[in-house]
Specification:
Radius of gyration: 14 Å
Number of helices: 3
Shape: elongated
Helix content: 40-55%
């Protein structure tokens, strides 16, 4: 039995990731750079970049629509 990450994509948003990251930084503030990095990766996985409409920026190695 494992975690269904594909199913979670429909239930979790970038706002949820931000709230979780803020909670983690309150508890483990000395690791805030790692927490921010993990939150950014989670948002990328969900298809939400930190800039909103700038989704996919910086990903020239994987063309969209192909």
């Amino acid at each position: 039995m494992g975690i269904d990450f594909e199913g979670m994509k429909d239930k979790v948003s970038g706002e949820h990731v931000d709230k979780a990251a803020d909670f983690a930084k309150d508890r483990f503030g000395e690791h805030s750079d790692k927490i921010d990095s993990a939150a950014d990766k989670a948002k990328d996985y969900l298809g939400e970049s930190g800039g909103g409409e700038q989704q996919g920026e910086g990903r020239q190695d994987s063309p969209q629509g192909q």
